[in-house]
Design a protein that fits this description.
With 565 residues, the protein is mainly beta. It contains one helix and 33 strands. It holds the Pfam family DUF4215.
Length: 565
């Protein structure tokens, strides 16, 4: 009997292997290519069976790539020499890819060739050699210079230290030069700022928006899955202008917008004219409505010359919900979530927008734009959404709080993104080893009652602390402290962990004697806005008061106590 390889009699105990595989006396698991686990015949597994991303369709590492971990994170390796545009290393045609290189001498530079197939928002970041493509990158002992060039060699953008530490970053959020890059060939150059060599660095290339892929992202106004004009979304993913249809000066005669986003070209004549537009939101949405002058087409720069508009948002019954005069460019109008909470998470339904001329002056031409900044149900978390789809997300894209989701929600005292014990946050998201607060305990008498009741809430030399909470901003908690002998007492409020105060908690800690006379107090002596007292006390009875200074919503806290002779 082969106990080393017989799957029915595997190992010294002769166990039957569920997988049907026995090797070296141990049962082996069976993995399939694309499942994220590396099987016996696989050299990588990146959770898919697509070639061209470093790990092939048969889960083999591809030439010119380095794959690490399970699931595998693959990096494209630079191919030297690559110090000119002619010898540049090609960047794979992926939405996000990490390349790995080194600067071997003070004259070495690395050049990469990027082919962009459609208008894109581009992001480039450098990190040190430890970055695999997963999680946050670090920048230890690396100082890079990052440059982006057009195909003809003209420099578009450059950055030294806008990334992590001394690493570099070019992003649409901070660099307009990498927003809405036209299709074409670009070159990325990485070099060392000082004369020092860089044994290893990584370069992350991300297409944060790609016009025509069917998902509206970044600076796109629309994306209908193609780059064809004439279908309300232009070849450059900008909303194409439609014309106003008169008469539309009342809610009853309002011009209907078939869908959003929309851009309408219109006029106000005579000066007392009003234009009313009707639209319907199919899902909870963040909305932006803005006016411009007649020169704006959606493709050019926004402008507002020689016009002054007034904008109103109306409910289905015609009630004015919000209005704006001059928050847009110049004297144009703007309603958006940043300036009005009513435009944030708007409920599904029918709404009206009314545009008029401020001062009843004739406006020969103007345009009004309707943009959905976030729409619940599209699977993309944007705007005011806390989530969008999946377990733990409501139909209105709000989180459904649960222990282990990584968010601290009352009455949780901690949440470390799991429900395991033994890691400083219990399986029920409470701080281990602490007594539980019992209400009411807002006075000295109530504190004594809690100390003598069962279960007792009492601080003694054997205590490690109390887990409490504030249900409203006026709530305060009083605890009895009894000392059988003189001791130095350390009292500290915490939140999120036994050594943390990271979630906005703001407390005030007071220590009083048996008559209620205050002996000591502290506001922000602990971590963050938490409190800390360290006081030498004689034997006797004392009271510890924890007061709530913020936030306004219900919040949990921990009161730690320790003693020294």
């Amino acid at each position: 009997m082969d106990l080393q390889n017989d799957s029915n009699h595997c190992g010294a105990c002769g166990q039957v292997c569920p997988s049907g595989r026995c090797s070296a006396g141990q049962c082996q698991s069976v993995s399939a290519c694309g499942d994220g686990s590396i099987g016996d015949t696989e050299t990588c597994d990146d959770n898919n069976t697509t070639s061209g991303d470093g790990c092939s369709a048969s889960c083999a590492s591809e030439t010119g790539w380095s794959c690490q971990g399970a699931p595998s994170h693959c990096q494209r390796l630079e191919a030297e020499p690559n110090d000119t545009r002619e010898t540049a290393t090609a960047v794979p045609g992926l939405r996000s890819v990490v390349l790995r290189g080194d600067i071997s001498s003070n004259s070495d530079v690395d050049v990469y060739r990027l082919m962009v197939t459609a208008i894109t928002d581009l992001r480039l970041d450098t990190f040190d050699g430890s970055y695999t493509g997963s999680g946050a990158g670090t920048c230890k002992d690396v100082d890079t210079l990052l440059e982006l060039f057009r195909e003809d060699g003209t420099e578009l953008a450059t950055d030294d230290d806008s990334g992590t530490a001394l690493c570099s970053s070019l992003s649409p959020q901070n660099n307009s030069e990498v927003m809405r890059l036209p299709a074409g060939t670009y070159y990325i150059r990485v070099s060392s700022v000082s004369t020092a060599t860089i044994p290893a660095y990584t370069l992350r290339v991300q297409l944060q928006a790609l016009c025509g892929d069917g998902t509206r992202e970044g600076t796109e106004q629309c994306d209908d899955g193609n780059t064809t004009a004439g279908d309300r979304c232009s070849a450059t993913c900008r909303v194409e202008m439609a014309s106003e249809v008169e008469s539309n000066d009342t809610v009853e005669t309002a011009q209907s917008l078939s869908s959003l986003p929309s851009l309408i070209g219109s006029s106000i004549s005579p000066g007392t004219d009003e234009d009313v537009f009707r639209f319907t939101l199919d899902a909870r949405s963040d909305l932006e409505i803005e006016t411009f002058d007649g020169s704006y087409t959606g493709e050019n720069a926004k402008s507002c010359d020689d016009i002054d508009t007034y904008l109103e948002l109306l409910s289905a019954d015609g009630t004015v919900l919000d209005s704006n005069d001059d928050s847009g460019s110049g004297s144009c109008s703007l309603l958006d979530p940043e300036r009005s909470s009513l435009l944030k998470g708007m409920a599904p339904g029918t709404y009206f927008v009314r545009v008029s001329s401020y001062g009843s002056v004739v406006l020969p031409a103007y345009s009004v734009s309707f943009q959905i900044l976030a729409q619940c149900g599209d699977g993309v978390v944007t705007g005011s959404e806390e989530c969008d789809g999946g377990a733990g997300c409501s139909a209105t894209c709000e989180r459904i709080p649960s222990c282990g989701d990584g968010y601290l929600d009352y009455p949780e005292a901690c949440d470390d993104n799991n429900t395991a014990d033994g890691d400083g946050c219990s399986s029920t998201c409470q701080l281990p080893g602490l007594q539980e607060e019992v209400e009411p305990n807002g006075t000295l008498a109530e504190a004594d009652a809690r100390a003598s009741s069962s279960p007792s809430v009492l601080l003694t030399r054997s205590s490690t602390g109390i887990a409490g909470g504030f249900q409203d901003p006026q709530d305060l908690d009083v605890y009895t402290l009894q000392l059988e002998a003189a001791a130095t007492v350390r009292l500290e409020t915490v939140q999120g962990g036994l050594n943390m105060c990271d979630f906005g908690l703001d407390t005030l800690l007071r220590l009083s004697d048996a008559q209620g006379t205050e002996l000591s107090a502290d506001d922000d002596g602990g971590n963050g806005f938490c409190s800390l007292l360290e006081v030498s006390l004689q034997a006797g009875t004392y009271y510890v008061t924890v007061a709530h200074l913020g936030p306004a919503e219900p919040v949990s806290y921990g009161l730690k106590v320790s003693f020294q002779e």
